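tool=predict chain=A
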Amino acid sequence: MASIVPFGAGYFFGYLYRVINAVIAPYLVAEFSLSPADLGFLTSAYFMTYAAAQLPLGVLLDRYGPRRTQTGMLCIAAAGALVFGLAHSLTMLTVGRALIGLGLCGGLMSCLKANALWWPRERLPLVNGICGGIGAAGALAGTVPVEFALGFIDWHTLFFILALGTVAVSLFIFVTVPEKPGQGSTASLGTQIREMRAIYTSSFYWRTTAFVCLHQGVYLAYQALWLAPWLRDVAGYDRLQIANTLFCLNLSQFVGAILVGGLAERLQRRGITPRACNITAIAVSLVVQTLFASGVTEFATLQAIVYAFAGAATLLVYSILNQHFPPHLAGRVNTLQNMMMFSTAFAAQWGIGAIINLFPGGPMHYSTAAHQTAFFVMIGFELVAFVYCVWPRRSIIPASGRVI
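tool=predict ok
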């Protein structure tokens, strides 16, 4: 448990910050007169810096270990929360949000790196799933509890409190996590960079991750922001119904992250690979997204629950990669995957806002046609990647287990 609880706490805050804009968006729109494109860009600033920092983060994790790396990064996130809470303009909001994304870029990655160091490979689907569940608990905290807190304090004060909590988690990791002997790489920086060629040139890597990145990027864009406006504008939900639905969505991801990890571990013993589970989950997700895009609202909360459960299953990609590549590459493998995923999330979140902005609508209400068009465009991109990755080809997993 030396790796799970402390690093899981950091991932908890990472997910809380990631989804909180879905609840505070009406306050931001009202105070700063934000357009859909403005709101999309502001929220996606988290994903932009999160993605940009992934490759250097991978080198830091493999070179200095997760304890020292994550402690420092969380302090940057706390500074970003202070800037966001003090913001009096869109520019200041964006800078604060970008700093938060930069500081929290190691949330899941430090968990995965620590797990790869402390746990045997066959247990990784389970322990990574537990960490994913802790992160999803942070997403839960960013819904109904935030809505409740805003009945007593304003959003500025909320971010000051979050900044203090982030510093406390940084200290918790630094004080409680022991240094594992040999966790840092002794290779030169140049060697570490050259070793990444084994990842970039691996057909296994690209066939495994491309469709996962695109799907998860779109899911994150809707989870963090755009599902709430869809529930308001298409399903006709009020603020409390939206908060409750987002709570159910994130609760489903919390349960899914834990259950899917344990289930995948058992199925793997019976010859069913985690990659097969990944493909199945994304296929289910595409069906649910089509219901959203078609304007089906009778089962909107149930659709959100299934969408989140399928989204949780895609976390298996990290276990797949960590089982295939050697442990000393774990940080760089995971952060390359994360860079692709969050780059997609940045593009999707901003792109959805840009599409919605093309249709007539007020600052607090967007048209049904705008939401449907955005959903169908995203589904189209996902389908192309899905077909490419599952199209029958020569086996991509060699019998020798070598990295290819």
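Residues 4-390 form a domain with the Growth Hormone; Chain: A; fold (CATH 1.20.1250.20). The CA atoms of residues 281 and 310 lie 5 Å apart.
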